[in-house]
Design a protein that fits this description.
The protein is of the alpha+beta class. It has helices at 19-26, 52-60, 74-77, 108-122, 128-134, 155-158, 186-194, 206-219, 227-235, 241-250, 256-260, 305-324, 334-338, 345-358; strands at residues 11-15, 31-37, 43-47, 81-88, 91-94, 101-106, 137-142, 170-174, 178-183, 200-201, 267-274, 277-284. It has two domains: 11-78 and 85-219, no CATH class; 227-358, no CATH class. It is built from 14 helices and twelve strands. The strands form two sheets. The chain has an eight-stranded mixed sheet, sandwiched between helices. A four-stranded antiparallel sheet has the order 5-4-12-11, with no helix packed on it. The longest helix has 20 residues, at 305-324. The protein is globular, with a radius of gyration of 22 Å.
């Protein structure tokens, strides 16, 4: 029977102390990705070793709290540097990575980023490499009780958090010593049945508790912007050129905002060749870089800095919406947190709305 999220929810619960044992049981079947504390206190998703001391050590570094993850989990499916194929005297050998992937601890904004990427890489010509990486994925989201970037998160304005509404297989709701578990897909339902020793029925009051937790979490998001008005202004091309020029003068074109963004899809392709043999790679690129739109003739249609600045905002708040129906901004706030000159997406939105109101 097909999963219907509109029917009465089945809510389970799992003790936090059982999470590690669950992951051990899953490790034979899945490549497991969890948020891990790394050197310097940075947190990002990394795969668990399959077994032994390395597995235990990696589990010790796991964190499922509301922490600022530097890079979104999009890197799991769209790596920063990815080998595509080897070539040798005219022969091409595809490099295919298609292992089943279990992601635990995905935040709602990052889930929206993954859904956006799924749409982008399957549109028109389906991307062979991305398609193989995502074809067997299982996503467990954990809602944010507090914003991991308190001065930058604005997911309530973009309607992407702090809890996911769809797109997940399971969603964990933190209640202290345990998680209440919401089911979001048929795969999620089957997972609970298969690993039922770890999940028990939640009390009848669980649904009410979840609603209260979600309401309190939403109220904790302090940064608010008029996202719908911004989308309308962008759609109608009602952003004056002087705004882009003003912001373009402040931008130092480091590309930091684009590298931390959960929805940026720009990439470059290059060959590492030694004679007639070598490897073709693709790597992340950024539309604000001066060489991104430079043509083979040397002509660059976006030579002026402000034109490259405008390209990013237009893509996120206009073009993406027109093509896919989804905004390229998920309200995660990483662009603002990473920007040394304070022109993250929320800053841009406030600036264009203030400009409109002053007229």
């Amino acid at each position: 029977m097909r999963f219907d999220p509109l029917k009465k929810k089945t809510i389970k619960k799992i003790s936090k102390i059982d999470i590690k044992d669950l992951l051990r049981e899953l490790s034979d079947e899945w490549d497991i990705y969890i948020p891990q504390n790394k050197f310097g206190g940075d947190v990002w998703f990394e795969s668990l070793p399959k077994s032994g001391k390395d597995f235990d050590d990696a589990l010790k570094g796991m964190t499922l709290e509301d922490v600022d993850m530097v890079i979104s989990p999009k890197e799991i499916f769209f790596p920063q540097l990815e080998p595509l194929f080897d070539f040798n005297e005219g022969k091409i050998i595809e490099i295919v990575e298609s292992s089943p992937k279990f992601l635990l601890g995905v935040r709602s904004c990052d889930l929206q980023g993954i859904l956006f990427m799924d749409d982008f890489f399957s549109r028109n010509i389906k991307d062979f490499y991305y398609g193989n990486r995502i074809k067997e994925k299982f996503i467990v989201t954990i809602g944010c009780l507090q914003p991991p970037r308190p001065d930058a998160c604005f997911c309530t304005s973009t309607h992407t958090g702090p809890f996911a509404e769809k797109g997940y297989d399971l969603q964990f709701v933190d209640t202290g010593d345990e998680y209440l578990v919401e089911v979001g897909s048929e795969k999620g339902k089957e997972f609970l049945e298969k690993f039922n020793t770890f999940f028990i029925d939640a009390p009848d009051t669980a649904d009410r508790s979840i609603k209260q937790i979600k309401s309190k979490a939403s109220a904790s998001i302090r940064l608010k912007v008029d996202f719908e008005e911004a989308l309308s202004l962008m759609r109608k091309d009602n952003v004056p050129e002087e705004v882009y020029r003003r912001i373009g003068e402040r931008c130092i074109y480091c590309g930091g905002c684009l590298y931390v963004c959960p929805t940026c899809t720009c990439f470059n392709v290059f060959d590492d060749a030694r004679g007639e043999q070598g490897t073709r790679f693709r790597n992340w690129d950024a539309c604000v870089f001066s060489g991104y739109t430079r043509e083979a003739s040397g002509h660059n249609p976006r030579q002026d800095k402000w034109l490259r600045t405008s390209r990013r905002y237009e893509h996120k708040l206009k073009n993406d919406c027109e093509i896919s129906g989804m905004s390229g901004c998920v309200g995660c706030g990483r662009c603002l947190s990473s920007c040394p000159v304070n022109i993250g997406m929320s800053s841009f939105i406030r600036e264009i709305i203030e400009e409109k109101n002053e007229k």
